[in-house]
Amino acid sequence: MSNTPASTEILAEIIAPGPAPLPHAVKRFGAESCGDALVDELISRCDPPHIDTPVDLHLALTTPDQGLDYHVRFTDEAVEVIRQEPESPWARFELTLGGLADLLFGDPPTAAAADWEHVGLNKPTPERPPQEQRSMRSSMRANHALLAALTGRPPSLESLAGLHDTDKWGLVHWYTTHYEQHFRPFADRRARVLEIGIGGYADPESGGGSLRMWQRYFRRGTVYGLDIYEKRLDIPRVHTVRGDQGDPEFMRSLGERVGPLDIVIDDGSHLPEHVLTSFRALFPHLRDGGIYVIEDLEPSYWPGWGGQPPGTADATTGIGFLKTLIDGLNHREFDGEPGWFDRNVRALHFYHNIAFVVKGPNRETGAPEIVRTMPPSWFPEESGGNG
């Protein structure tokens, strides 16, 4: 069984806000297709362990009208699933279709109350011979991996970055700590996330490591990936789009099509012209409270990439443009008519080579004009301030 565009469409229906999304999905797509899509999601969250022998587990789903059986087979650091009952499973996981949806996508109280049962069919005993004991250890590891996918919380972004071979932590970049800090409030929401740049160059089935990381981290979210090349990736709840981030009309239409967005991450070409084009087109399509991230700002200082030396950068570079947003954030402290970005950027956070821009109304008042226009000599020299 493999993920298809239909599976991703079904999951989008199941995680949609509103009353009774699962019954609506079952009515539209059928119980079998909904079961397949939910099992695809479950397997995508499973981190297969190192084991010595193959392990078979039975996932038994029930619906009001039928039962659905899945054979989950673990091999060394791999897992696959087919729609059939296994002959000799080591354990059986019994769930209703709604219970599986609640475990995967419900809020914490709903997930905790989900109805499911685990039945051990081949329990360990001290009398087993050594070879069988080794097989038992493999079975327990596989069993624990599926249990963790079913009931556990997402691993840290550092762990996910290593698991999915992204460059966002541990080599050149150290971004995941900052992502954890700013993205934690979104982790359990139905967040809509867009990342520019999928990776893998022209190979349609290569890249997507960070998309897999975001798919695991935002367990109820929908993730979009944009790349200049066509991509065909087998990841539940992930949609790939082909397009040029340097094309302002395309980027505006993309924002209209996939927005409103909660998070945008620009890990694309890193060319300053493209960075600015993407920001201007997509930032308006963020929800208030949403975050726009620009990675790899170092080309702002590299002349060969369109950058300029420190102290000379103008608004045509990423760093130079972000400095204008800092001015806009404080526009009430000087004369001039504020622009749209001045009124709608609420905060900026900078770290090495990465910036987080928070969207929201910039309504804080400034200093009174009399204070702004008074010379420093007006204030007492030994003033202790206003506390």
Coarse shape: elongated
* Number of helical stretches of at least 4 residues: 14
List unreliable stretches of 5+ residues. none
Query: Could you tell me the number of beta strands?
Result: 12
Strand content: 15-25%
How do the strands of the widest beta sheet line up side by side? 8-7-6-9-10-12-11
Q: Indicate the CATH topology of the largest domain.
A: Rossmann fold
Q: What is the H-and-E element order?
A: HHHEEEEHHEHHHEHEEHEHEHHEEH
Look at the helices and sheets and give the structural class.
Answer: alpha/beta
CATH architecture assignment name of the largest domain:
3-Layer(aba) Sandwich
Fraction of residues in helix:
25-40%
**CATH superfamily caption of the largest domain:** Vaccinia Virus protein VP39
What gyration radius follows from the Cα positions, in whole Å?
Answer: 25 Å
- Number of domains in the coordinates? 2
On the 0-100 scale, what is the average pLDDT? 91
Largest sheet: 7 strands, mixed
According to CATH, what is the class of the largest domain? Alpha Beta
Organism: Actinoplanes italicus
Protein name: Demethylmacrocin O-methyltransferase
Pathway: Antibiotic biosynthesis
GO molecular function: methyltransferase activity
